[in-house]
Design brief:
ArsR-like_HTH; HVO_A0261-like_N; WH_DNA-bd_sf; two-stranded antiparallel ribbon; Arc Repressor Mutant, subunit A; 114 residues
């Protein structure tokens, strides 16, 4: 995907109400697709489509959890921290800042100790 289509795809995704609600909700806490469906007021398949789009652009991560009955389900967490849009004579550029994952922060901590 070239830079222009990537900018357009991310801008389109961030303009979507459902995608924004998913990002806002999962920035506070990991949530399942069913929980996100309730928050967004849309069907679970719609949530899964938005989650896949967000995942492709590395804006959410997923983890598998087990419930009390031993069933497994996935929860999603936003990795997006900040979006900066710059306009110049060359066009629009979008810079994304992502949250560090705990494992990445731990690895960086250990490397800094060396």
């Amino acid at each position: 995907m070239d830079a222009d289509s990537d900018v357009e795809a991310i801008a389109t995704l961030l303009a979507d109400d459902c995608a924004r609600t998913i990002l806002e909700a999962t920035a506070a806490q990991p949530l399942s697709a069913d929980e996100l469906s309730d928050r967004c007021g849309v069907s679970t398949p719609t949530v899964y489509r938005r989650l896949e789009d967000l995942r492709v652009h590395d804006l959410v991560t997923e983890q598998t959890r087990a419930d009390a009955d031993g069933h497994h389900y996935k929860v999603y967490t936003a990795t997006l921290d900040r979006v900066v849009v710059d306009l110049s004579a060359d066009g629009l550029t979008i810079r994304l800042s992502r949250r560090d994952r705990m494992a990445d922060r731990f690895t960086q901590f250990v490397e800094d100790l060396r």
